[in-house]
What does this fold into?
Amino acid sequence: MSWRFRKSFQVIPGVKLNLTARGLSATVGGSPVSINFGSRGTYANVRLPGTGIWDRVRLDAPSKATSGGGRLPAPTPTPPIPDAIPIRSASTEMLTSEGFDSLRVRYWPTRTKSAVILKRLSVTPKESWTVQP
It folds into this structure.
């Protein structure tokens, strides 16, 4: 959620000055039709009172939908980076530090033993898994 600032001052009936974080604009007219002049362009505003339905159209420039047939401009190709070094991956056995050597020494034999145990369990019938007194 972003915070916005807007303060309007009525200069004379039908004319307001609007102060926002982006600058100053002037609105002429009132509900349901008004025209706004500001640094971002000139806009016509139309409202249907009591419905919450409104529309805003820019008057001083063609709309984006009509310019260029409604198509987006083609993306500009990314230039190649000179002297770029390709990124290469190493195996997980190579990615270690001295602090983890003792852990690795303990882990690998345990991993090998658990692999052997799992292999034996997959061959052994499930009936023999129960503990007998």
